[in-house]
C-alpha cells in the first residue's frame, strides 16, 4: 500500500473509532456539536459533487434540506416508521431536484445562480405560507420513542459514513470524471458524444438527495422545524465551507465545513454570533481572490 | 379597485425597476450579476440611519455622503471583481455572494437583527384627487424613482460620459482604441448601480422598515424584472419591474395574498427555462 493511501486509511479509521467511542467520554454538548457537523457535512458532500466536481453553482441547498426535513417530520406525524420516512424524504428531494435540473440544464454562470437562488428561497417561502406544514410558526417533529439520544448519534455517524462512501465512489466513477470534464470543458465533453445535460441533471438530483438526507437528519436533531432555519444564509454557509476546503476535494469539503461550524459554534461569543456571516463572506471573497494561494506563493519565493 | 391595485403595483414596481436597472447596468458593463447589490444598498440605508437619526446630522449632509458611500462601495466591488486571477462567472458570482453575506454580517453585528425605522421622509399625508386618495410619501418615492430612471436614461444617451460608458459596454476593444479607459467606465457603472441601489433601499425603507435582510426580496424581484426584460436592456429592465409590480398586486388581490412573493420566483424559473439568456437577449452563444 502506498504511504499516502496508508495515511488516508489510518486517519479514516482513527476518526471512525473516535466518533464511535465519543458517547463513552464526550459531554452531551460535544455530541450535539458532532451531530451538527456531520449533518452539515452530508449536505456539503452533495454540494461538493455539484459545485466542486461538476462546476455548477447552486444556492438552493437549504431549500432541498427543507424538503427533506419537512417530509420526515410530516411522515412521522402520520405515524410512519423512521426507516421509511428518511428514504422517502431523500427520494422526494431528489425528485424536486429534477424540477431544478430542467431549467438549470440550459443555463450557465450567473443565470444558474439566480435560478437556484429563486428555487431555494421559493421553497422556504412556500413552506412559511403553507398551513399543513405549520406555516411560519413551525412544526414539531415527533421523534420515535425507541430512538434514544445516543441512538440518534450513532444513526447520524453511520449514515454520514455511508454517504461519504457513496460520494467518493461516485467521484471516482465514470460519472465523476464526466462531471469534472463538464467543469473544465463542457464543449469538449459534448464533442466526445457524451450527453452533458444528462449528467448535469443527475448532478443536481444527487446533490438534492444528499441535501434531503441531511435535512431528514436535521429534523430529528432540531425536533422543531421552522422555515427560518432553512434560509438563504444556510446555503451560503455550506458554500463557504466547501470553498474553505478548496472546492475540489470531498475530504476538503468535509474538513472546511467542520472547521467553519466549529469556529462559528465555539470561538465566537454567542452575542457576536453574527460575526460568523462576516467570516463566511470574508472566506468566500478571499478564496476567490486567491489570496491564500498568493500569500503562500509570496512566502515560498521570499523565505523558502 | 382596479385603479388602486394599479397604483400600488406601479409604486412597488418602480422600486423593483430601480433594482433591475442597477443590476442590468452593472451586468451590461461586465456580464456579472452583482448579488451584493441588495446588501450593499441596505448597508448604505443603515449608515443613513446612523448619521441622520443617531448622530443628528443634517439630511443635506448625510444623504449626499451616503450616496457617495454607495458609489464607492459599487466602485470597490468592480475593482475586487477585476482583481480575481483568471476570472470566470463562477468566481465572480461567489465573490459577490461573499460581499453580500459580509455586508449582511456587518449590519447584523452592529445594528442587530430587529427592525428599525428610518424617518427621513416628511410625515405622510393623504392627498385626495377626485375620488382617489394618494399617500404623499408614495407620490414622493414614485417621483424620485421616475426622475432617477429618466436621469440615468438621458445621462447615458446624451452626456459625453454616458456615451463613453455605453461605448465601452458595446465594444470594449474599439472604445479602448479611442482612448476610453474601459476599466474605469466599468467601475463607474458599478458605482452608479450602487447609488441607484441605495436610493431604492431608502425608498423601500418606509414600506418594510430597516432590517438586515430587507433588500433580499427586492433583489430577487429585481432579478426577476431584469430577466423578464432581458439583462442587457435598461428599458426592458424598467418595463419588467413595472410589469412585475402590477402583476404582483393583481395576483395578491385576485388569487392569493400569501403566495404573492412566489410569483416573481416562479417567473424567474419559467422565463429562464424557456429563454436561457433572458427575454430579449440575442441568440444563445458559446464562446470558444
Q: Which regions of chain A have little confidence, pLDDT < 50, spanning 5+ residues?
A: none
- Rg of chain B is 19 Å
Strand content of chain A: under 5%
Q: Give the overall silhouette of chain B.
A: globular
Order of helices and strands of chain A: HHHHHEHHHHEHHHH
Largest sheet of chain A: 2 strands, antiparallel
Shape call of chain A: globular
Query: Number of helix segments of chain B?
Result: 11
Radius of gyration of chain A: 19 Å
* Major sheet: arrangement of strands of chain B: 1-2
- Largest interface chains and counts: A-B, 46 and 52 residues
- Average residue pLDDT of chain B: 87
Let me know the largest β-sheet of chain B. 2 strands, antiparallel
Strand order of the largest sheet of chain A: 1-2
Helix-strand topology string of chain B: HHHHEEHHHHHHH
How much is the average pLDDT of chain A?
Answer: 88
Low-pLDDT parts of chain B are none
DSSP helix fraction of chain A: over 70%
Give the helix tally of chain A.
Answer: 13
What assembly state would you assign to the polypeptide chains in this entry? heterodimer
Model description:
- The complex is a heterodimer of chains A (304) and B (288).
- In chain A, 48% of the residues are buried.
- Chain A has helices at residues 3-25, 28-53, 61-77, 82-104, 109-127, 149-172, 174-184, 186-191, 196-222, 232-244, 250-267, 275-288, 291-303, and strands spanning 139-140, 224-225.
- A two-stranded antiparallel sheet of chain A has the order 1-2.
- Chain A has 304 residues and is an all-alpha fold.
- In chain A, helix 3 packs across helix 9 and helix 10 crosses helix 11.
- In chain B, strands 1-2 form a two-stranded antiparallel sheet.
- Chain B starts with a helix and ends in a 14-residue tail after the last helix.
- Chain B contains 11 helices and 2 strands, in the order H-H-H-H-E-E-H-H-H-H-H-H-H.
- In chain B, helix 1 (2-30) packs parallel to helix 5 (136-158) and helix 9 (216-229) packs across helix 10.
- In chain B, a hairpin with a 2-residue loop joins strand 1 (126-129) and strand 2.
- Chain B has 288 residues and is mainly alpha-helical.
- The chains are: A mainly alpha (304), B mainly alpha (288).
Amino acid at each position: 500500500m502506498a504511504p499516502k493511501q496508508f495515511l488516508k486509511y489510518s486517519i479514516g479509521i482513527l476518526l471512525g473509532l473516535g466518533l464511535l467511542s465519543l458517547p463513552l467520554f464526550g459531554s452531551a454538548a460535544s455530541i450535539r456539536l458532532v451531530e451538527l457537523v456531520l449533518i452539515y457535512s452530508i449536505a456539503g458532500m452533495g454540494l461538493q459533487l455539484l459545485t466542486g466536481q461538476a462546476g455548477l453553482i447552486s444556492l438552493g441547498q437549504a431549500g432541498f434540506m427543507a424538503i427533506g426535513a419537512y417530509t420526515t417530520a410530516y411522515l412521522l406525524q402520520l405515524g410512519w416508521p423512521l426507516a421509511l420516512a428518511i428514504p422517502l424524504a431523500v427520494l422526494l428531494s431528489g425528485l424536486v431536484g429534477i424540477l431544478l435540473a430542467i431549467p438549470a440544464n440550459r443555463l450557465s454562470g450567473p443565470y444558474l445562480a439566480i435560478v437556484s437562488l429563486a428555487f431555494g428561497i421559493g421553497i422556504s417561502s412556500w413552506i412559511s405560507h403553507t398551513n399543513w406544514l405549520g406555516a411560519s410558526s413551525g412544526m414539531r417533529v415527533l421523534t420515535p420513542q425507541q430512538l434514544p439520544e445516543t441512538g440518534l448519534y450513532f444513526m447520524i455517524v453511520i449514515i454520514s459514513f455511508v454517504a461519504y462512501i457513496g460520494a467518493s465512489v461516485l467521484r471516482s466513477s465514470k460519472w465523476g470524471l464526466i462531471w469534472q470534464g463538464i467543469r473544465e470543458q463542457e464543449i469538449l465533453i459534448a464533442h466526445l458524444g457524451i450527453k452533458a445535460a444528462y449528467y448535469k441533471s443527475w448532478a443536481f438530483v444527487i446533490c438534492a438527495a444528499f441535501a434531503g438526507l441531511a435535512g431528514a437528519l436535521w429534523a430529528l436533531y432540531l425536533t422543531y422545524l421552522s422555515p427560518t432555519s432553512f434560509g438563504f444564509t444556510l446555503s451560503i454557509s455550506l458554500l463557504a465551507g466547501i470553498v474553505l476546503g478548496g472546492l475540489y476535494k470531498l475530504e476538503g469539503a468535509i474538513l472546511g465545513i467542520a472547521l467553519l461550524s466549529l469556529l462559528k459554534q465555539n470561538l465566537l461569543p454567542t452575542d457576536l454570533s453574527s460575526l460568523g456571516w462576516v467570516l463566511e463572506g470574508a472566506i468566500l471573497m478571499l478564496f476567490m481572490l486567491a489570496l491564500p494561494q498568493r500569500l503562500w506563493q509570496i512566502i515560498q519565493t521570499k523565505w523558502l | 379597485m382596479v385603479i388602486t391595485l394599479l397604483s400600488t403595483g406601479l409604486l412597488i414596481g418602480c422600486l423593483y425597476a430601480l433594482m433591475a436597472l442597477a443590476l442590468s447596468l452593472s451586468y451590461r458593463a461586465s456580464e456579472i450579476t452583482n448579488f451584493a447589490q441588495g446588501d450593499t444598498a441596505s448597508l448604505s440605508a443603515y449608515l443613513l440611519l446612523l448619521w441622520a437619526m443617531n448622530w443628528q446630522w443634517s439630511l443635506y449632509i448625510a444623504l449626499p455622503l451616503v450616496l457617495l458611500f454607495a458609489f464607492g462601495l459599487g466602485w470597490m466591488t468592480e475593482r475586487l471583481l477585476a482583481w480575481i486571477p483568471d476570472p470566470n462567472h463562477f468566481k465572480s458570482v461567489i465573490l459577490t455572494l461573499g460581499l453580500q453575506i459580509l455586508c449582511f454580517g456587518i449590519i447584523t453585528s452592529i445594528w442587530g437583527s430587529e427592525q428599525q425605522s428610518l424617518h427621513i421622509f416628511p410625515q405622510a399625508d393623504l392627498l385626495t384627487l377626485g375620488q382617489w386618495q394618494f399617500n404623499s410619501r408614495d407620490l414622493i418615492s414614485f417621483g424620485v424613482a421616475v426622475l432617477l430612471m429618466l436621469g440615468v436614461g438621458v445621462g447615458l444617451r446624451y452626456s459625453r460620459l454616458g456615451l463613453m460608458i455605453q461605448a465601452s459596454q458595446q465594444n470594449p476593444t474599439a472604445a479602448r482604441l479611442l482612448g476610453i479607459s474601459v476599466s474605469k467606465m466599468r467601475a463607474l457603472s458599478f458605482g452608479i448601480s450602487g447609488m441607484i441601489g441605495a436610493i431604492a433601499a431608502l425608498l423601500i425603507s418606509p414600506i418594510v422598515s430597516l432590517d438586515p435582510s430587507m433588500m433580499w426580496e427586492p433583489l430577487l424581484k429585481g432579478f426577476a424584472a431584469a430577466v423578464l426584460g432581458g439583462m442587457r436592456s435598461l428599458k426592458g429592465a424598467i418595463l419588467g419591474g413595472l410589469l412585475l409590480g402590477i402583476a404582483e398586486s393583481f395576483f395578491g388581490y385576485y388569487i392569493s395574498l400569501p403566495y404573492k412573493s412566489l410569483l416573481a420566483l416562479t417567473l424567474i424559473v419559467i422565463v429562464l427555462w424557456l429563454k436561457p439568456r433572458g427575454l430579449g437577449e440575442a441568440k444563445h452563444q458559446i464562446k470558444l
